[in-house]
Specification:
By secondary structure, this protein is mostly beta strands. It has four domains: 6-14 and 476-575, Immunoglobulin-like, CATH 2.60.40; 41-137 and 253-372, no CATH class; 139-248, Sandwich (Jelly Rolls), CATH 2.60.120; 384-473, Sandwich (Immunoglobulin-like). The protein is elongated, with a radius of gyration of 32 Å. The model is unreliable at 1-21 (pLDDT under 50).
């Protein structure tokens, strides 16, 4: 006897309510991504939040320079893809910058070396050896000394002023800028431009007019006007030149830093007026904005607020950004570049919506990246594996990444705790994939339930790390199919729009969505046994409005002891034409008597 289909009937429509708070998504163990939506009098505001551990041990918070050069610009996602070879990275855009040259506006320090000087009237952001975020106004005083007294260095990696002298390092680019009339002194070997220490190197070459190559392990002093005459006289070939780059405050222990500002949160209080060198136009309009902060327990928060997108996100003012950082729990926070520069990404994939034409990323000078050096495994391709022959989620794609030579153990564990796949050995940096069909070697069905992809690693620096990713194997649902023809609305009674096959008892829910995933109507929940199920809908949304013509998605979720499993079917809706108005009866012709 043919089994009669059970029907998932339409239950009460849910009242329109605010969006449910979704749990933060774990990207790496300890690193989460969350999206906050706030409805304000100015429109919705969408904020993207990365929350990671204190940057010590396997974790670090560091600025990354576009193209590894102060000249030029690059997308945040491209910087991340370069960095992904040595770490798993998430982050945001960095400092303000010169749009033509790409030079950052303020301080840049990488690996303890000074690449660009600070702006004393703006905040600089540093990360010390203990993983504490420092936000201070920092100034630089530089000197050089040859055969004469100490003399002032007026800039680092910037063209010298009239009668001034600049120090150029490999961070600038391949050669010094062309500067007619300049005198240039090459210092080699020259260690990194470490602040607050005396650096000494012999003069290897003296040249003029710029264009001098800046080789790795060297630096070049470039002087103009009266400073050029002094440099030529006091730094001949073979002379040892002493360099000092003094920061105030000295920021002892800070190896990485970048510019930005203004300060947003100081000692747990929002700062309304930081009195920094920013214009009213930079601070008060609602626009996309980026920030970095630290909570009382040391966690780092990177925040990107979208803006300039009507109906999606209105953006925030600088003080509203400060209030947001307070609500997120920071005790120290500072702003970064904003507007079209605001970008957030993970492993080279965008997380926010930049406010540029078509959502394109702006090319920027720097990014600020929270990096993890341990073993990393992305989420399994399929949250629920269902190898039952219906063509949906038939095989699982797994992988893991190591960024240093490491001893690795990897296992795929079933619900019974027994490994179906194991590996143990020494691996070089790289990504190691595994495709698994969800079946036994002889093709028989595997155990249903929760599976674990577990990897542990010990790198060549003696640092241990591990990751455990889980997924479900569940064959409860099969073959979600639309029911032709298209649904004609309006209609008085629900009509089937899709069917699924249930292989065992489960709690089943159904809902109608747009093709972009927006929920239109929840159709109820029921406990059902094996058999064919129909999803029925009357064409109305949760608010009672009639659905527009077009394509929609019926989603069915079944839950039981083997976990949740979901299937979708796409169907179409058409509008019935309004009933034709009855034609008026013709009036009888009048007859003359």
């Amino acid at each position: 006897m043919r089994r009669q289909p059970s029907v998932i009937v339409l239950l009460l429509a849910l009242a329109c309510a605010g969006p449910a708070a979704a749990a933060p998504r774990e990207l790496v163990a300890g690193l989460t991504y969350d999206q906050h939506v706030e409805f304000t009098a100015h429109g919705p505001v969408v904020a993207h939040v990365l929350s990671g551990p204190r940057p010590v041990g396997l974790w670090s918070l560091e600025p990354v320079l576009s193209n590894e050069s102060l000249l030029g610009r690059e997308r945040v996602t491209d910087m991340q893809r370069r960095a992904a070879a040595v770490a798993t990275v998430a982050g945001v855009n960095g400092d303000f910058f010169n749009f033509k040259t790409g030079n950052p506006s303020g301080l840049l320090m990488r690996n303890g070396g000074l690449d660009h000087p600070p702006i004393p009237g703006r905040s600089s952001i540093g990360i010390d050896a203990g993983g504490d975020l420092r936000v201070d106004r920092v100034s630089l005083y530089g000197t050089w000394q040859g055969t004469g007294p100490r003399r002032t260095i007026t800039d680092v990696n910037g063209p010298p002023t009239v009668n001034g002298i600049s120090l150029f390092t490999p961070a600038w680019g391949p050669a010094t800028p062309t500067t007619p009339g300049s005198v240039e002194v090459v210092l080699t070997p020259f260690a990194a431009a470490t602040p607050n220490t005396e650096l000494a190197a012999p003069v290897a070459q003296v040249s003029t007019n710029g264009g001098t190559p800046i080789l790795p392990g060297s630096a070049v002093l470039v002087a103009r006007g009266t400073a050029a005459a002094r440099l030529q006289a006091e730094a001949p070939a073979g002379q040892t030149v002493k360099i000092r780059l003094i920061l105030n405050p000295d920021w002892g222990g800070v190896a990485g830093a970048l510019g930005g500002g203004p300060v947003l949160v100081r000692a747990g209080a929002a700062v309304f007026s930081a009195d920094e060198q920013f214009s009213v136009e930079q601070l008060f309009p609602r626009r996309p904005r980026t920030a970095v902060g630290q909570t009382g327990d040391g966690r780092i928060l990177l925040v990107a607020v979208d803006g300039g997108l009507a109906g999606y996100s209105a953006g925030v003012s600088n003080f509203e950004l400060a209030l947001l950082m307070i609500r997120l729990g920071t005790i120290t926070a500072a702003a970064l570049d904003s507007g079209g520069s605001t970008t957030m990404a993970f492993e080279g994939e965008l997380l926010n919506r930049p406010a540029n034409a078509g959502g394109a990323e702006r090319l920027v000078s720097e990014s600020l990246l929270l990096s993890y050096a341990g073993v990393y495994a992305p989420l399994p391709l399929e949250e629920v594996l269902s190898p039952n022959g219906d063509g949906v989620a038939e095989s699982q794609q797994l992988s893991y990444k190591v960024v240093r030579p490491s001893n690795v153990s990897a296992s795929l564990l079933g619900p019974d705790g027994v490994a179906r796949y194991t590996f143990s050995g020494t691996l070089q940096p790289g990504v190691y994939p595994l495709e698994w069909p969800g079946l036994k070697p002889d093709g028989a069905a595997e155990l249903e339930g929760r599976w674990h992809w577990a990897i542990s690693a010990l790198d060549d620096l003696g640092r241990a790390s591990s990751v455990d990713r889980s997924f479900w194997l569940n064959n409860t649902l099969e073959a979600a199919k639309p029911v032709p023809p298209m649904l004609a609305v309006p209609r008085k009674k629900p009509r089937a729009v899709a069917t699924v096959t249930l292989t065992r008892v489960a709690t089943v829910t159904a809902q109608i969505e747009t093709t972009s995933g927006v929920l239109l109507r929840k159709l109820g929940q029921r406990r059902a046994g094996p058999g064919e199920l129909e999803v029925a809908w009357d064409g109305l949304t949760a608010s009672g409005a009639l659905a527009y013509p077009g394509r929609y998605v019926a989603r069915v979720v079944a839950r039981n002891g083997f976990g949740p499993v979901s299937l979708t079917a796409t169907f179409a809706v058409r509008r019935l034409p309004p009933p034709a108005k009855p034609k008026p009866k013709p009036k009888p012709a009048k007859t003359r008597q």
